[in-house]
Amino acid sequence: MGWVYYLRLVDTKFQADCLKARLEDAEGWLYRKVPKYIGVYRTPSGRYGVKILW
Q: pTM score > 0.90 for this model?
């Protein structure tokens, strides 16, 4: 399985960590499938995003 990248990039790591926490606390995932890993990554341009491994 591959990574799924959340479509929104943010300017700070704090914002990405908050988005990650919201995704981790989400109840009722689509098809009841809970992700194995949710992480924060940094793009070469210096912005941050969230990636999910199913």
A: no
